[in-house]
Amino acid sequence: PTAPLVLGIESSCDETGVGIVRGTELLANAVSSSMDEHVRFGGVIPEIASRAHLDAFVPTLRSALDTAGVTLEEVDALAVTSGPGLSGALMVGVAAAKALALATGKPLYAINHLVAHVGVGVLDGGDLPESLGALLVSGGHTEILKVDALASDVTLLGATIDDAAGEAYDKVARLLGLGYPGGPVIDRIAKEGNPKAIRFPRGLTMPKFTGTAENPGKHRYDFSFSGLKTAVARCVEQYRARGEEVPVADIAASFQEAVVDVVTSKAVLACREHGMSTLLLGGGVAANSRLRELLAARCASAGIALRVPRPGLCTDNGAMVAALAAQVVMAGGAPSGIGFAADSGQP
Ligand code: KG4
Ligand code: ZN
């Protein structure tokens, strides 16, 4: 059988994405971001994101079809992110996908955003192995997943209990007066600082939270970044109260080291304890240079193969939705029908 031609739609946050794949081959990945409209607010404003999706959807769809050189009639299946994400933003993509499905009669697949961040891996480096772990780090979510079958068997091993990793970068950048979004600028400034200058707290790494391999604690694979953010705020305040110059580069480097230390060590621990021999990294924070460096080193010494899809596939996009849906189609999964709702909560 020939590989299915699948069109995927993503609208869970500030990116309007339409991607087209044929099986594991990427044909188009059109993305329009409303980030510019959120910058002056220092964070994504849901109402603005939803309106931007309405404006961007049809041009993004046209662009993807043009790039792929296919028509809607030729598509075998449609897919859309149904959650988790911002509910108003999700609803725009879901409504658009349902309209296309009704107008064309094509089967429609509701796709989980987190699993799509993993499924996109097939577009860069080919098929994913059976015992696969995933570390997802973005502005909206931070998780460790165990993937036994992309189409049907994915377990959430751990997640943040407060802020997402990218959100922590954004909040700390604001505290340091570095602007928004904070990830890229902290990544850059941290290179000039000493990551050991200040020992910031590593959230949920104490034995009372992690337990042991035999007797795991409730938060063994979970994350918390709000205490870290508070520690950075207190540190900055102390310098200011003393009338001293704030050592921005040292604070940025030390903050980044705390985030990256925790996410890499917990991801590697989860892989070891669940027999997962490959780890896939996804989400916007996957662009972080220190995260890539430390994760590569820790995976190498633990004998874990690391897969990092190229940056345009790590940030939110439509191709990841199409790629996962194609896997579902090829595994014989049934379409979702037209009645499903956008679901903003965790899976
Ligand atoms: O995946 P994404 O584009 O959107 C979602 O949040 O879902 O991720 C954006 C997040 C922002 O919080 C941004 O600060 C962070 O990813 N980010 C980074 C870097 N580039 C983007 N964080 C750390 N280092 C980076 N180089
Ligand atoms: Zn995402």
TrEMBL record:
Pfam families: TsaD (PF00814)
Compartment(s) of residence: Cytoplasm
Class in the EC hierarchy, top level: transferase
Residues binding substrate: 136-140, 170, 183, 187, 288
Main location: cytoplasm
Cofactor: binding details: Binds 1 Fe(2+) ion per subunit.
Catalytic activity: L-threonylcarbamoyladenylate + adenosine(37) in tRNA = N(6)-L-threonylcarbamoyladenosine(37) in tRNA + AMP + H(+)
Cofactors required: Fe(2+)
Residues bound to Fe cation: 113, 117, 316
Residue ranges the record marks as coiled coil: none
Membership in a protein family: Belongs to the KAE1 / TsaD family.
Functional note: Required for the formation of a threonylcarbamoyl group on adenosine at position 37 (t(6)A37) in tRNAs that read codons beginning with adenine. Is involved in the transfer of the threonylcarbamoyl moiety of threonylcarbamoyl-AMP (TC-AMP) to the N6 group of A37, together with TsaE and TsaB. TsaD likely plays a direct catalytic role in this reaction.
PANTHER family, per the entry: TRNA N6-ADENOSINE THREONYLCARBAMOYLTRANSFERASE, TRNA N6-ADENOSINE THREONYLCARBAMOYLTRANSFERASE, MITOCHONDRIAL
Descriptive protein name: tRNA N6-adenosine threonylcarbamoyltransferase
Organism per entry: Arthrobacter ginkgonis
Lineage: Bacteria, Bacillati, Actinomycetota, Actinomycetes, Micrococcales
